[in-house]
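Hey, I'm writing a tutorial for new members on how sequence and structure tokens pair up, and I'd like a real worked example in the thread rather than a made-up one. If someone can provide the structure for the chain below, I'll link this post from the tutorial.
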Amino acid sequence: RALQHGQSETLPRFLQEPVDAYIIKSNPIKLRCQAQPALQIFFKCNGEWVHQSQHMSQEHADVVTGLKIREVMINISRQQVEDFHGPEDYWCLCVAWSHLGTSKSRKASVRIAYLRKNFEQDPQGTEVPLDGMIVLHCRPPEGVPVAEVEWLKNDEPLSFGDDGMSNTRGDHDLIISEARLSDSGNYTCAASNIVAKRRSATAVVVVYVNGGWSSWTGWSPCSVHCGRGVQKRSRTCTNPAPLNGGAFCEGTPSQKSPCNTVCPVDGGWGEWSEWSVCSSDCERQRSRECTAPEPKHGGRLCDGVAAAAENCTGGLCTQSVERTSDVALYSGLAAGVVTMVMLIIAVTLYRRSQSEYGVDVIDSSALTGGFQSFSFKTSRQANPLLINSSMQPDLTVSRTYTSPMCFQDSIDKEIMAEHSLLDPLAMSEDGSEIFLSPAVTYGPPGLDLSCPTAMTVAHCAEVSAENWTIRLKRQTQDNKWEEVMSVDEESTSCYCLLEAQRCHVLLGQPGRYALVGEALNQEAAKRLRLAVFGGLDSSNSLGFTIRVYCVEDTPHSFQEVAVGERSRGGRLLEEPKIMLFRGNTFSLQVSIQDVPRLLWSIKPFNTCQEFSFSQVWAGNQCPLQCAFSLERYSHSSSQLSCKISIRQVAGEEQILQIYTSVVEVSGSLRKGTGSHYTDSSSALRACSASLSAFKIPLSIRQRITATFDAANSNGKDWQLLAQKLHIDRNLCYFACQESPSSVILSLWEAQHQDPGDLDSLASALEEIGKVQSPRGPPALCSTKEDSEFTKVG
């Protein structure tokens, strides 16, 4: 009892004092006080006592000491705070009484919380170079309590202290000391307190890269082989490439330098020397030298002989009567020698003329009386048009021998009209089949062929037996398409050899043919060739048009585009690229990106265009194309850099990077030429290329066929020839031919259009020549009607 009395003889002690509070909207707040020991507790606000009726009090015992603890609460409304107009904030404190006196608590202020809507300073967008400094200012709106600030990038909170990024808390500025490309984005300043959260206007930050020149390439060879010419070197604006509107490289992308090439000097004969004195054999001689002039710098040697001899005549040689018959004999022998020399010269000239085929026969006795080895040498001069000649059908009909076409009736050689060979295709009646190649026509239709014709057709399929069923079809007289054969089948009436980009066909009947494909699953794909052309807008001096083509990857399709662009003055802006378009029903999207908006404008709502799946998958009427119209702000803006994105939705994407000069384009348009038309020009000359396509010389071909068509005890027959030439499929077809080896050579010629490939033929024949052990002929066909051909060879 004494302890309890001692504790009660102290002043009240506050266990809980009122704390500062904020009124949010119209919700009142509560202020609390707890004291021990206390007989009474009252609140005093702004120097005035709060009425007792507004107090809510309660008592409870301390669980440790057992003493009573008094607690008092009052409510403060928004109206009370607004009605107070004192020199300081609205405040309240507690006063507690005991027997010994009173105690006062701390003052607690009560304020109305708010946050203004408008920022005192919004961050401003900016463009900075790579590695430059980014400074964004932010002043949050006025509020009670003071708002806290955070930065957002693309609506995601930023963390400070990493990667050179800092935030000065005093003025809330965002500072990035070294800008990176990844720092480009939309930045927002966010301010918040207990009342609300505000966001500033978005500041767009662009980190750009100015273009830089790459190293110069090496100087090109001199433009002429003799005399004064020029050589060039070039560089590209790719180190780095301009990005996000960065400036294009200053200066020229190419340089020219004069050059001189020493001209070759062909040799010339000097004067003949005087005749020598007649020898004891009644013969005199004279000579000359190749010194007028001497051959220099790779010039040709003199043609002809350096020495000559003749019999002495006119009594210059005295001989006895007994040797008269010997003189006649020697004269005859001399005449024979001269004849042989002339014959050798004639043969040599003939062989040189044969080099146009790209091959000379060195061993004239080859295949005489049985198989012997061949020796070949290729021509030094190659026809550049033969690079793509294997991709084009043979468009010629020849009166004389031009393998692989054989005719019973002789007709004059002529080039057929191009439109009759590569006509537009009609859509297939069966929706599941699409054309994979142009239709190729050769004829006339009633032509009677004595042997099959080899025809090469380019196609655009990504070849895979699991994804495609590909068929060869022929057009009937009623313009319908009938199936000839499936390319993976074996037949005795037709032969198909499918390669990655072309198909070689042996046909016995003229007509109009095409390759048709049926997709087996969504992984089936066509190859598309993507090309971008550009040209000035004729109706707007500041305008420039970019045209994007998506065509099937065949020479004929791209040739059509190149011809059209040349006629309208277009220029190829980037090397074409190949893209796989899959049969998954998704569309094709074409968009233009990274146009420097400070220099160029583009028509609105025209940055992305789309082709439906059916337009691309089954489209064979005309090339798919779309155009983007741009306009520069002034004539001084001569450089254009952008990207063309071509993608199949949920599929492959290709990017074509455009760097061009409008001045250069306009210059090329005035001249009507362009440096990028090399490939298309070759395509335009493809038809004429077939006239000089590589052929095996007729004399060699006849000896090969005579050797391998005949049965041979050593097993060196046409079957071995096919094996060595890697033609092992569908041998039944060759067995049914009158001359199997001739047809095999025709197919080999269609596959190999480079004169250098003649070396591989020579190697194959050399391997056959080394075969020693005889072999039995394999069973070629299982059908009864073809069993008679198993005896061939």
